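User
Please review the sequence:
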Amino acid sequence: MSAKISSSKTLNPTTRDEWNFAPEVPIGNNPLFEWPWNFKNILTYHRDYWLTLSEVSIFLFLAVAGWFLHQSQLGDISQLEWGLAAHVYFRNFILLIMFAGGLHWLLNRQKIQGTDYKYVAQFGHRGGGRFSFSNQVHDNMFWSLASGVLFWSFYEILVFWMQASGRAPSLSFAENPALFIAILLFTGVWIAFHFYWVHRFLHLGFMYKHVHALHHRNVNVGPWSGSQCIRWSMRSISVPWRSILSCHRTRSM
């Protein structure tokens, strides 16, 4: 169900010449959000959604690995401490550098794909004056690491603390394995629904002008461009999954 990519030669003649390529339209969507339902398409989509190397499977792996490698070092999460906050922040800081920085190095520095799948063939954005530090990459890195990771970590710590202190409900696998797995599988659907409406909210006048416009300064986007949105759209898929994985441990504290 992924969108097919076409070269700029097949685009509508009204398309601006600067676009290097664009997906064929209409862009494929999760068949759960298409009516009438086609159950074969739904099953096929979610089979590929979970059982292939995809954004979802990568983030689920990170959630599981992050829990077993790092959460055990956090101690009693029901007690908010600066050490807890620093641990979560720097873990997320390193994760973002690894992924966004690694992709930037491969795609924009080493150019392993050339201009394939680039909306704009040029590497780097014209009109650097619109960006902080007059540099798109430095601007994106600063707002991603200084602001994006800060909000991302705040949401994560808040959820863990509320569960561990009894301020939010939690569920363990041992308590109800069927419901636990059902919630886990439904997480991707909830993220799609949640992100759609939060994104719509960010495009309202005040929010767009004072918050979301920072992201939309990027037309020639790169790996660092999307992570600027973390602070308001709560994009990290690994956060709700790590929250689910934390349920059993936090209830015992």
Q: What stands out?
A: The first strand starts at residue 5 and ends at 7. The two ends are 43 Å apart (CA to CA). The CA atoms of residues 64 and 236 lie 14 Å apart. The chain is about 55% helix and 0% strand.
